[in-house]
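Complex 174.
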Amino acid sequence: MSDEILLDQPTIQRRVVELAAEIRRDYAPDAPVHFVAVLKGAFMFLSDLMRHMTGPVTCDFIAVSSYGGGTQSSGEVRLLKDLDRGLEGRDVVIVEDIVDTGLTLSYLQEILRARDPRSLRTACLLSKPSRRKVDVPVDYIGFTIEDRFVVGYGLDFDEQHRNLPYISVIGGTS
Ligand code: IMP
Ligand code: MG
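Predicted structure with inosinic acid bound:
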């Protein structure tokens, strides 16, 4: 794989601290915020985001199918693992690694909204706006990036490279 670092570790860490503060500012200081992280890509982002959140925070996990083994979205989203608990009356923030076509997020927002949360917002570490197929609302975006396939900090190519503490570009456009 190419070793071009797009976002280094200090850059990511600084932004995640800012995002945690932004999220908390939108709720009361003592309001419980419930993060729903999308497996597997968002696990590292969630971990850093949670450790910088002040006030009460809980989390749960959901898994959906994404790219299979390639870099092209199949366009079809499937629920692989559901949440452990319901969302009724909670202030929910979906925590996702990247919004690309937007198909995954719009599917998730639809199924989670149907569970009657008090509020539903979305935080994405990365956004590739040039690839959007559906206009999906994202309340918190870490970084807007070009149309390149990236790995690291939770994001994979064929399950590899999730462990990198930075975000790196894998050869060519996606
Ligand atoms: P979307 O449904 O096209 O928005 O795709 C979102 C999902 O595709 C993300 O949750 C990622 O799992 C995956 N994805 C999109 N772009 C990339 C990338 O550049 N690197 C790794 N995974 C990606
Ligand atoms: Mg993902």
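Helices lie at 9-25, 43-52, 103-113.
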